[in-house]
């Protein structure tokens, strides 16, 4: 027994301490962790062994120049580090099933945070708070908020399947590559009060999204299956890529009063309660297609000046007025609308660009139709206009 303790003590005494502070270390128990306490900087990677059952406290270490990883560690309850302020590479927690305490009071900078499969992690004890992270991915945890994560900039942020997470508020000023939120708490509010610009952003299943300062998108932005009734981006003027609103079942109001230019397509589809698509009063140029389909009766794009792609309006409602207004803008080169023009109302199954015409004339068992294909389309030489629609009966 004496020997067990003597050996590591001797090793330190003869100057092996430096060697222990670099390389790749696998921690199997609390003793292995405390053996690192003299390493103010650990130069290398630290991993937690899969059969670890102890609480692991990596105390004393201030910086890890590589990664800190716990992957498939089913019996570890607590992971902490009282002095750790920086991880130069990744902080990976992957499938650590009963981990419930994550206590890093000094941690502020991590290159990549990659946490997935932490079904017992309900809160973070990050007193200082993470403020510098390039890539943040948090999935399948029980976190209810992001207290302890206060990023002012990020390249990639991916937050998904955290079913208890109902608040994502962050002082982000920009998103260098992509932000994606999906399937978090049913009441999740996404608040980015300081966000000025973002490359790509995708919001799914959110109950509110607040982006009051967003002024430009380098790439694209999409809203899918959200629960909000209103989306406002008052300062957004330009988007390098497309903008999409799809299947937001409560959406009644889109408001992008400053938007002038969309580099890709503008899609507003299947937002069943949106009666009026009038949220783009200054929109002039669209690099891709304009594709609006759903149950609206009113469409207004008063400043429209240049649409490089197709123009497709399809609605269950009568949209004759809108069609009359836009039809003169069509006509290919030299016209406002360069691509194919489609404008049809009173449809049973309004669809996206290219979904009209021949494909819907037959009654031969379209899979998307609950009844017969009731709308008969005639593609004339002058365009894809013209609908002889006979809507029979109810649904
Ligand atoms: C942005 O999204 C587009 C379209 O999905 C993709 O091609 C592009 O690589 C993305 N850019 C970044 C920086 O993530
Ligand atoms: C979340 O959004 C996706 C599409 O983006 C959708 O398929 C899914 O049904 C939504 N989930 C819920 C619970 O609404
Ligand atoms: C919107 O833009 C204007 C003009 O650039 C600016 O003065 C204002 O502060 C911005 N609003 C927000 C909420 O950022
Ligand atoms: C995105 O656009 C903003 C504002 O125009 C610009 O400052 C930023 O450098 C662009 N980002 C990238 C990655 O191109
Ligand atoms: C349209 O949205 C409804 C719910 O809002 C959804 O059930 C349906 O699958 C969506 N259809 C398409 C084509 O996205
Ligand atoms: C739509 O939202 C905008 C911005 O929040 C608001 O100013 C406007 O009054 C709303 N329109 C309707 C019809 O509610």
Mean pLDDT: 87
Q: Work out the helicity level.
A: under 10%
Q: How would you sum up the global shape?
A: elongated
What is the rounded Rg? Answer: 28 Å
What are the bound molecules? 2-acetamido-2-deoxy-beta-D-glucopyranose
Topology:
Elements lengths: L1 H12 L3 H4 L1 E6 L2 H5 L6 E8 L7 E2 L5 E2 L3 E4 L6 E3 L5 E9 L6 E3 L5 E10 L13 E10 L11 E8 L6 E3 L4 E9 L6 E3 L5 E8 L3 E3 L5 E2 L3 E4 L5 E3 L5 E2 L3 E4 L6 E3 L5 E2 L3 E4 L6 E2 L7 E2 L3 E5 L3 E2 L6 E2 L3 E5 L4 H7 L14 E4 L30 E3 L9 E3 L6
Parallel strand pairs: 1-2, 2-4, 2-5, 3-6, 4-7, 5-7, 6-8, 7-9, 9-10, 10-11, 11-13, 12-14, 13-15, 14-16, 15-17, 15-18, 17-20, 18-21, 19-22, 20-23, 21-24, 23-26, 24-27, 25-28, 26-29, 27-30, 30-31
Antiparallel strand pairs: 32-33
Descriptive notes:
It comes from Vermiconidia calcicola. This is Cell wall protein Ecm33. By secondary structure, the chain is mainly β. The protein has a domain at 215-395. It has 4 helices and 33 strands. It has helices spanning 2-13, 17-20, 30-34, 320-326; strands spanning 22-27, 41-48, 56-57, 63-64, 68-71, 78-80, 86-94, 101-103, 109-118, 132-141, 153-160, 167-169, 174-182, 189-191, 197-204, 208-210, 216-217, 221-224, 230-232, 238-239, 243-246, 253-255, 261-262, 266-269, 276-277, 285-286, 290-294, 298-299, 306-307, 311-315, 341-344, 375-377, 387-389. The protein has a 21-stranded parallel β-sheet that branches. Strands 3-6-8 form a 3-stranded parallel β-sheet. Strands 12-14-16 form a 3-stranded parallel β-sheet, with no helix packed on it. Strand 30, helix 4 and strand 31 (341-344) form a beta-alpha-beta unit. The longest helix has 12 residues, at 2-13. It starts with a helix and ends in a 6-residue tail after the last strand. One 2-acetamido-2-deoxy-beta-D-glucopyranose (NAG) is lined by residues 247, 249, 270, 272.
């Amino acid at each position: 027994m004496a020997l067990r303790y003597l050996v590591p003590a001797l090793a330190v005494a003869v100057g092996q301490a430096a060697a222990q502070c670099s390389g790749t270390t696998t921690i199997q128990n609390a003793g292995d962790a405390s053996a690192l306490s003299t390493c103010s900087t650990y130069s290398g990677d630290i991993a937690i062994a899969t059969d670890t059952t102890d609480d692991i406290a990596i105390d004393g270490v201030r910086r890890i120049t590589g990664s800190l990883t716990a992957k498939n560690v089913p019996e570890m309850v607590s992971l902490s580090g009282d002095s750790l302020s920086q991880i130069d590479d990744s902080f990976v927690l992957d499938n650590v099933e009963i981990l419930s305490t994550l206590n890093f009071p000094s941690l502020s900078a991590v290159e990549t945070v990659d946490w997935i499969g932490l079904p017992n992690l309900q809160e973070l004890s990050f007193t200082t708070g993470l403020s510098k992270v390039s890539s943040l991915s948090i999935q399948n945890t029980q976190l209810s908020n992001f207290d302890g994560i206060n990023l002012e900039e990020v390249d990639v942020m991916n937050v998904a399947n955290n079913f208890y997470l109902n608040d994502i508020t962050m002082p982000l000023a920009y998103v260098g590559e992509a932000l994606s939120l999906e399937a978090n708490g049913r009441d999740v509010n996404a608040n980015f009060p300081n966000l000025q610009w973002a490359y790509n952003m995708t919001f799914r299943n959110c109950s509110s999204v607040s982006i009051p300062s967003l002024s430009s998108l380098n790439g694209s932005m999409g809203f899918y299956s959200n629960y909000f009734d209103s989306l406002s981006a008052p300062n957004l003027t330009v988007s390098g890529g497309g903008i999409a609103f799809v299947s937001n079942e409560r959406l009644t109001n889109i408001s992008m009063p400053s938007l002038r230019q969309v580099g890709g397509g503008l899609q507003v589809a299947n937002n069943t309660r949106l009666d009026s698509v009038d949220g783009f009063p200054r929109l002039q140029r669209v690099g891709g297609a304009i594709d609006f389909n759903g149950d609206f009766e009113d469409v207004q794009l008063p400043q429209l000046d240049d649409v490089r792609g197709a123009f497709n309006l399809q609605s269950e409602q009568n949209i004759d007025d809108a069609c009359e207004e836009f039809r003169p803008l069509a006509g290919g080169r030299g016209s406002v609308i360069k691509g194919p023009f489609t404008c049809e109302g009173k449809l049973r199954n309004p669809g996206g660009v290219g979904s009209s015409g021949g494909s819907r004339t037959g009654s031969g068992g379209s899979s998307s139709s609950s009844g017969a294909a009731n709308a008969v389309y005639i593609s004339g030489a002058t365009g894809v206009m013209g609908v002889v629609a006979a809507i029979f009966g109810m649904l």
